[in-house]
């Protein structure tokens, strides 16, 4: 069980998150949509304390962290239950693809280097990049780099995978290969919370779609409900703007 309770976040005078409540079941795939600047990515980053919320609690399984009073060890325990996929890949340029995937297993989980590298190679094989283990990020396409980024998050076998607009930095020709990998993860019942502008992915893969506006969850439901029978005028306007009616 994953639960966000009354999450608030402010940047200066701007209240970005206004008391978000969200529960995610094991194996559930939730896609968050909405216009830029509505707090989607900030919400994602508060889940594993890349951004500290000002108020609220985050619970993943047996780990519960209070944003207002937490310890480093509590935050570390929470992060160990999550994997984060960034929009800009965030790979280590001086490490090969295999080393990038192995790094978290070594530093976070304390694996022996040889075991971590073997696990990393198995993941590369699984994501269709088995021949790229010795390649550095500069030698990989954008799509390949993002797949390595997903592989790195997968290596830790997290309870929850967080995706922050994973295709937004990609050239159009590489978007499909990343979305296909995410679809494959979905078939394996990996719990995912995804911020994306890819409406077709939301329609095809999400168990639940959440529409955010002005720092709030305005409407949520199945893809059929959100795209086929939207209720809130802001959601209707957004869907018209992105051509997803």
**Strand share of the residues?**
15-25%
Biggest pleated-sheet summary:
6 strands, mixed
Looking at this structure, what is the CATH superfamily? P-loop containing nucleotide triphosphate hydrolases
Low-confidence stretches: none
The rounded Rg comes to 18 Å
Query: How many β-strand stretches?
Result: 10
Order of helices and strands: EEEHEEHEHHHEHEHEEHH
| Coarse morphology | globular
CATH class: Alpha Beta
Overall number of domains: 1
Structure commentary:
This protein has 245 residues and is α/β, with parallel strands linked by helices. The chain has one domain: Rossmann fold. The protein is built from 9 helices and 10 strands. The protein has a 6-stranded mixed sheet, sandwiched between helices. Strands 2-1-4-5 form a 4-stranded antiparallel sheet, with helices on one face. β7, α6 and β8 (192-195) form a beta-alpha-beta unit. The longest helix has 16 residues, at 172-187. The protein starts with a strand and ends with a helix.
Task: Looking at this protein, list some descriptive labels.
ATP binding; 245 residues; six-stranded mixed β-sheet; four-stranded antiparallel β-sheet; amino-acid transport; Rossmann fold; nucleotide-binding; alpha/beta; 25% strand; transport
Task: Describe this structure in a few short sentences.
This protein is of the alpha/beta class.
List the SSEs and their pairings.
Layout: E1 2-11, E2 14-24, E3 29-33, H1 40-47, E4 55-60, E5 63-66, H2 72-79, E6 82-85, H3 97-107, H4 113-126, H5 142-155, E7 160-164, H6 172-187, E8 192-195, H7 199-205, E9 208-213, E10 216-221, H8 223-228, H9 233-241
Parallel strand pairs: 3-8, 3-9, 6-7, 7-8
Antiparallel strand pairs: 1-2, 1-4, 4-5, 9-10
Helix pairs in contact: 3-4, 3-5, 4-5, 5-6
Main location: membrane
GO cellular component, one term: plasma membrane
GO molecular function, one term: ATP binding
């Amino acid at each position: 069980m994953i639960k966000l309770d009354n999450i608030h976040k402010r940047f200066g005078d701007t209240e970005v998150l206004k008391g978000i409540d969200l529960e995610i079941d094991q194996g559930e795939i939730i896609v968050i949509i909405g216009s830029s600047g509505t707090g989607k990515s900030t919400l994602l980053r508060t889940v594993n304390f890349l951004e500290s919320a000002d108020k609220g609690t985050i619970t993943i399984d047996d780990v519960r962290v209070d944003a207002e009073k937490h310890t480093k060890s509590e935050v570390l325990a929470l992060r160990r239950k999550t994997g984060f996929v960034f929009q800009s890949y965030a790979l280590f340029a001086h490490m090969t693809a295999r080393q990038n995937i192995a790094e978290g297993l070594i530093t976070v989980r304390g694996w022996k280097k040889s075991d971590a590298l073997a696990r990393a190679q198995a993941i590369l094989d699984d994501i269709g990049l088995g021949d790229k283990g010795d390649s550095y990020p500069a030698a990989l396409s954008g799509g390949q780099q993002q797949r390595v980024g997903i592989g790195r998050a997968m290596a830790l076998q997290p309870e929850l995978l967080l995706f922050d607009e994973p295709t937004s930095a990609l050239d159009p020709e590489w978007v499909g290969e990343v979305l296909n990998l995410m679809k494959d993860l979905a078939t394996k019942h990996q719990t995912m919370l995804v911020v994306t502008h890819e409406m077709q992915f939301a329609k095809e893969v999400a168990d639940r779609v959440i529409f955010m506006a002005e720092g709030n969850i305005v409407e949520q439901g199945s893809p059929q409900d959100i795209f086929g029978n939207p209720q809130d005028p802001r959601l209707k306007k957004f869907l018209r703007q992105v051509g997803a009616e």
